[in-house]
Design goal:
By secondary structure, the chain is mainly α. It has helices spanning about 45-75, 85-115, 115-135, 140-150. The chain has a domain at about 45-150. Keywords: Membrane, Transmembrane, Transmembrane helix.
């Protein structure tokens, strides 16, 4: 074999040390230990939480909006509006506000806590859309006065 093709089997960076006899000391051989690396499976529970919060936001908002409108139309058709009808409408309005605003804001807080930027942005957009829809329904002062009036019984 030609000298160019002959390669020494010396590890890189290892310099041979000389013993007193002038010969190179044998270099210690390193054993490479190859253990399998366990790759963690990504957690699935955030996906379940995002799905549940989205279903509560969309389904609850739509459901309680329909209930609120039905109760409002029932009060319009009735000659005398009782305290029970007002209280029911106020509860539907409270649950509408909770589903439309509080649930997406909880999703934003949880997503930011878990460092999920995309989920936080999506829940922030959902909160903004719901807030705009509630502002279209009535100003916040009117919503608050309607709820307090129905729960306190004042007219």
């Amino acid at each position: 074999m030609s000298p160019k093709k002959r390669k020494t089997r010396r590890p890189r960076g290892a310099t041979p040390t000389r013993e007193q006899g002038g010969r190179a000391a044998p270099t210690p051989t390193r054993t490479v230990k190859r253990d399998p690396v366990v790759v963690d499976i990504p957690a699935r529970w955030p996906l379940l939480v995002w799905s549940a919060l989205t279903l509560i936001w969309a389904g609850g908002s739509a459901l309680f909006f329909v209930f609120y409108l039905a109760e409002a139309f029932a009060m319009l058709g009735a000659g005398e509006v009782g305290a029970g009808a007002r209280r029911n409408a106020a509860w539907y309005l409270v649950l509408l506000v909770v589903c439309a605003l509080i649930v997406p804001l909880c999703g934003v807080a949880l997503a930011l806590r878990l460092r999920r930027r995309v989920a936080a942005a999506m829940f922030a957009i959902a909160a903004l859309l719901s807030g705009a829809a509630l502002l279209w329904l009535a100003p916040p002062a009117e919503l608050l006065s309607a709820m307090t009036t129905a729960f306190t019984g004042a007219s």
